[in-house]
Write the structure tokens for this entry.
Amino acid sequence: MSTTSSLRLGALALCIAALSTLAACSKTPDNTSVDARTSTPDQIAHGRYLAKAADCAACHTSPGGAPFAGGVRLGSPFGTFYGTNITPDPVHGIGKWTAAEFYKALHDGVTPDGQLYPAMPYTSYRTMTRADSDDIYAYLMAQKPAAVPNLKPDLKFPFNMRFAVMFWNMLFLKDSLPDASVGTSADWTRGKYLANALGHCAECHTPRGAFGQMNGAKALHGSDLGRVVPPDITPAALVARGWTGADLQTFFATGISRQGPAFGEMHPVVYLSTQYLSPGDLRAMSVYLLGDAPPPPTPVQPGSADAAQVAAGRNTYVAVCAGCHGLGGEGKPHVSVSMQGSSTLRQADPHNMLVAMLDGVEASAFPGTESLQAMPAFAKTLNDEELAQLANYLRSGWGGQPGDVTAAKVKALRDAPSH
């Protein structure tokens, strides 16, 4: 975040003082709702399914911690947020909340304790139905209370002025984003709800403006959040990287497909959320992302590259990569992914490929029996020129992209800070 952007938000925040009385204008939720003490087993079971679809555990269950007790660290350009306790604990959790108050938190970002930061994706959850909100509430209230205090966010000025979020909502809180694709089928409609309201795909895969707001005109076009950046998942970008509806369903169910594995922030999405969705819902989400009548996937065509660069890159590949990935890039089950048809190699921007080469990739377990060994980091063993040559060999040969990665680009990413 630039200094100019910070000052702009600071100026807006100072204007809030004159507008604070507008808080009273926020909607009052309908108080007719489910009573947690009389929830039916079916309602709780449905709420459990919806909580999986909404990926609640990713932010609200820390590794080794009590379920939904919070504590997950969420880095951002504005500072650090922490997932909160959403167990029925009456002191630290949501035990005193009504279902109506829970719905208001999801819909408006307002809790009995005040305004939420939009790090909690109420910007997407606001399109969730009241019935589904009530079922998630019933499920959460049926969990074991955990007396775990919440951690306060550690934010830079002026982003630590929580009351300024009210004005942010006035400017940027929308009821919906443009559709990802074209469709009218029942699967497409269901997939839209799953991807937008519950799965909140746009929160990661949509670029952000100066104040952290989603750029609706570029919905699902990818973003630059994090070290591993969420890619463009619009229909045109997906088919350009070889994806079909069947591939997407396999990826969501297992975390790995012929285009490669889920890594970075997408791995926990699969592990905690999408693997639990029904085959029908996985199909629906895939239909929505590609549309009712998607174009055929684009076959890989060799990309243009300097012959000397490719030759040098192949020498490096044979020396440090082929032992796991194979001379022909075929990969090995339970060891390494195939380079053939890799979605990461086929991305127009080589960012994620270079991050994997510099930082390595952790060993991963996937739903079912598949697993992959760790990929070592090459930041200390290969210099910028060697990594650029390797990248150009991979991209031009198996990615169908031009061999245009430079040593300067590698160095810039090597030196870039991560948040």
About this structure: The chain has three domains: 30-172, 186-290, 307-415.
